[in-house]
Design a protein that fits this description.
eight-stranded mixed β-sheet, 27% helix, globular, YbaK/aa-tRNA-synth-assoc-dom, YbaK/aa-tRNA-synt-asso_dom_sf
């Protein structure tokens, strides 16, 4: 189950911008839509992962970064892989290309690329391919804490 982020952020008086647009499923489409709508911020991607223990995770990083799965294993303590599309749709109701990094039930830990905290604004899909949300990077940890998800910090060093 996924929380309605718009309602959640509004109820906690957390700044956000929400843009409605044609559905986006690729990074190329996102760049075009960003230019059309004029929103600013660092583009992020979210990967819905599953560990050997059957634990699910949400991993948020830059759209331009390759994921180091060996490093992720060190961070969470188990080998993880991207969940197959059918399983992700069953568990979260989301389609590939529009995966939200936030808003999951609190049993799903969130893994955040530490460099995202250094950005000004973060851009992501709020579980819908026809919307884009922008939040202040400084609010990311607060949002995760309020949602009650365990937070793991990811960096490329060991």
């Amino acid at each position: 189950m996924i929380v309605n982020l718009e309602e959640f952020l509004r109820s906690h008086s957390i700044y956000f911008e929400l843009y409605n647009h044609d559905p986006i499923y690729t990074n190329e489409d996102a760049v075009i839509m960003k230019a059309e709508k004029g929103f600013a911020g660092t583009e992020t991607k979210a990967l819905f992962l599953k560990g050997k223990s059957e634990q699910y995770y949400s991993f948020v990083t830059f759209t331009t970064k390759r994921t180091d799965f060996k490093r992720l294993k060190q961070v969470v303590g188990e080998k993880v892989a991207v969940v197959k599309q059918e399983e992700m749709e069953t568990i979260t109701g989301q389609k590939a290309g529009a995966v939200t990094p936030l808003g999951y039930e609190n049993t799903i830990p969130i893994i955040v690329d530490e460099e995202l905290f250094e950005q000004e604004k973060l851009v992501f899909a709020p579980a819908r391919p026809d919307q884009t949300m922008v939040i202040l990077a400084k609010d990311l940890k607060k949002i995760i804490d309020l949602l009650g998800n365990e937070l793991f910090s990811y960096n490329e060093e060991g």
